[in-house]
Each structure stands twice: as structure tokens, then as C-alpha cells.
Amino acid sequence: MSTGTLSLFFPVFVPACAAGLAYAGHRAMYLDWKTLLLYFFTGPGRTSRIILLVFAALNLKSLPLGWTARVFHSFLFHMLGARPKTLPQRALFHYAVTSSRTSLLETDYNIHKSNSTYFADLDVSRSHLVTHLLAPGMPIVGNNQKNKLVLDKDGNPVKGSFGIALGAVFCSFRREIGPLQGYEMWSRILCWDRKWLYIVTHFVVKGKVKPTSWHGKWKGPTRSKVVLKEGGGEDEVPDWTKYIHATAVSKYVFKLGRFTVHPSIMIHASGLLPERPGGWRGGDEEEDCGEMVDLGPVDVEAEWDWKKVEAERRKGLEYAKHFGALDGTNSLFDGGEDGAIGKFPVG
Description:
By secondary structure, the protein is α+β, with helices and mostly antiparallel strands. It contains ten helices and six strands. The chain crosses the membrane at residues 6-24, 36-58.
């Protein structure tokens, strides 16, 4: 999602799609489907048509507008009813699981899923996660003139349309995914700082990993919680990493016009942050990121509170800050001060 996309989604894209579908449905009512299907499967040239139909069915996600349909579906799916009215606050760091399959057009000359195609899947997985978790907060922050959640330095509500922009993506490849092989994308919020919301996504072998519970009506199989050995010995946690194909980290920024919205505002407006003494935003960068607050011992079995949220955020931030430091590599570009090796065709 880029800045401004969500401001156009409902007033422009949804009515346009609805009008198109309504017209197509109206025209379809007057077609003789029995005759058309009979001709398609038995008439002259049927072999070519059937082969083309099978090819298209195996490559739906890679066809023209396939990516657009997948991403728009994720918006509509959650904004129009798939999300429960309320989520438990502990769901903030829980996974959103999305299934997919490698199409033939995604397969490279090594006969496995091309590395470049992981990023299109990440767009879909992140859209499901962010829309499901933060959908309640989007209209609240979007109507900032009324709700006054985002203020400028003079204390006035910031103006502008609401949008989300992708800042960067890192992907580490562990093992290949074969042609037509199914897999799952497990995405969750990793952490946030004063500007970025970081999301981690694991590409996982399909059907091999099951959570202990689900929220809402969209559910899959579950497993029992891991039980510790008697006597305080090592636990029996399986090695989940052996099921990982790849792991990616992405970062989103929320915008009102050109003004950056603190991620904690979005999360709090969506009802997923417990109350915290002094609020979730401080007066300087260190305090804003929670580094100046001594959490003390955090009881993992206790009720979900701000200390548990902050402890989880800091744990993820240990990884995200190294990822964020790579932004500095922009300064390494010198415009070919000492020359270049060549300019090549067919890029």
C-alpha cells in the first residue's frame, strides 16, 4: 500500500469494481451458458482452449491483475466482516496465516519458486495482517480533524488523507519451494519505533505447523501447548525452524498527508494497546522507543499488560534496529565517481 491508496479505496476502487461486476452479471443473465460450455469443450479447437484453461487455472495468481485482485481481496475481506468486532489485546503479536501455491509462471530455471516472487506474496500476507489488526483504527485516524489524535508541533490536528507506505523489505532464503507446491505465510508484528511498524513473515511448509488457538471464525487445525518436562528440565519445544522456507522483515509507515503518524497511535486506536502510565509516546527519541523505562521482571503468565507489550516490542526491536541501519547504505552511492563497468541491454 502506498500513501493515498486507502483514501481512494472505498470512494473510487470499490464503487468502480462493484459497477463492473454488476454490469458483467447483468450481461451474463442473457447468455446461453449451456450452448457456450458445450461448444467450448466439444467444438472445433477444443484442445487448445482446454489446455489454455488448465494453464490459466494453474497460474491464476500470476495472470494480469492477479496481484491486484489478491491485495484488494485482503482489504475487503477484513473490512467487510471477516474481522471480529473486538480482538484480545494479546492478538497484537499473533500470526496471520495465509496459504498459497507456487504457480508455473513463478518457477525459475532452477525449477523452484523464483526469489523475486516472494515479494508479491508478502504484499498479500502483510495486507491481511495489517487490515485485520488495524482496520478499526484506520477511519479514526483518517478522520483526524474530528478525533484529534495526531497533532502538529503547535497542537493542531494534522490534515491530509490517510495512507500506508512500505519502506523496505529484507528476505532471507532458507530452502526452496517447488513448482505447484503449497506453502503458508505466517506474518505478525515484530515491533515498532517512533516511525516504523516492523512485520516479520515466515514462509512455512504447508500443514506442518499449527497454532494452539485462533481468534474469530476463520480457523484452522490446532495443536496442544508444549509441556515442560518434570523436574524443570529442558522443554520439548519442536524445532519449528526446520519447516521454514524463508523469512522476511518489512517496515510500514503510516501517513496523514506528508505527516508521519506514530505507530502506537494506530495500534491504540484499534484497541490493541493496554493503558500505560504516561502513555505510549514520550518526549524524546529514547523515551519514545521505551528504552528509558526499566520494566523489571515481566511475568509471562500474568495478565496481558503494557509491560508484556513493551517487553515483546523490545525483543523484536533488537532485530529490527539492524535492519533499519541498512537505510544508511544510500550514502554509499557515489554516482560512479570512479567509473562504471558498462551499460547493458534488456534490463
